[in-house]
Amino acid sequence: MSTGVIIVLIVIVAAVLVVAAVLALRARGPQHGGSLKRRFGPEYDRAVVRHDGDTKAAERELSERVRRHGSLHTRPLEPAERERFEARWTAAQERFVDSPREAVGEADRLLAELAGARGYPDGAQYEEQLAALSVHHAHHVDGYRRVHRVTHAQAQTHTAGAGSGGAGTAAASDTEELREALVAARALFEQLVRPGRHDDGRPGTGARVAPDPAAASGPASAPGSAPASTPASEPAARAPHGWSLGKRRPKES
């Protein structure tokens, strides 16, 4: 075989290898994006929206989150710790009927402390803690984001209202926003307070839940009247996880 033929064969083989490498890289791109989308779910969509539809930029951000926090090892709670967190959450739920703003603020603080106790970044580093939680609890982390956002927005509004002589009682629309945020945050609380699929492959059992007085009495019950029974055929009236908060306006001060 002549030298010229050998050179031509080498060039052809090199060209084939280059084309194969390019095709492999192109194939890896969509697969990597698809993997991130499966892992992050709703967080992937939020990242895309935050980057004005730029999926590459969103995927770079999410990949960086995985790089920083993907190998994070959480620690289980001691039984006494778990009981304290569950008792505080139950108290926040019960407090919501009369003091929704304070109850949601307590939920915000409680999730920050609980995540820190489980081994996530400290709650004082909110953005970093949220990023770490999004890697391991992507489908539930938005509840924490909502109570944190609403808590700080309500605190600023309340401060401005107090400075101008405004009333401290939440409006009905504000109360509904607080209620929805607290309901959404409960899913992450359940994931963190007890072992779930992320921790040991088994579904979490969830926290003990105190009955909601407003939900139990029903909207038509007058104060002091006997609680009306809730028909078993109305599951849509209950919030996820078998728990709902009443929409009753808090007492006027």
TrEMBL record:
Keywords: Membrane, Transmembrane, Transmembrane helix. The chain crosses the membrane at residues 6-25. Residues 155-175, 193-253 are annotated as: Disordered. Residues 210-240 have a biased composition (Low complexity). This is Secreted protein. It comes from Streptomyces olivaceus.
